[in-house]
Amino acid sequence: xxxxxxxxxxxxxxxxxxxxxxxxxxSVVAAVVSAGLVGLFASVTxxxxxxxxVAMTEAAIGAGITTVVxxxxxxxxxxxxxx
Length: 83
Fold this sequence. Notes:
This protein has one domain (12-75). Helices cover 83% and strands 0% of the residues. It has 3 helices and no strands. Helix 1 (3-24) runs antiparallel to helix 2 (28-48) and helix 2 (28-48) runs antiparallel to helix 3 (52-77).
């Protein structure tokens, strides 16, 4: 097994673990951050697999903007149901 194959396998396991954490965590903020990690691991995997354009898109949208939008929406809706 080459080093590249091993690194790709470790990143794919990281994607699976992060996805499982996102579904099983009780804290919504921790689940959103874990879902952002899925995008981050995926973008690094795309770089290793020689797809830098897909990696940049995944990092910007999947790990970056989506996580920020979810966290912003959570901050705006936290007190909405307390009244």
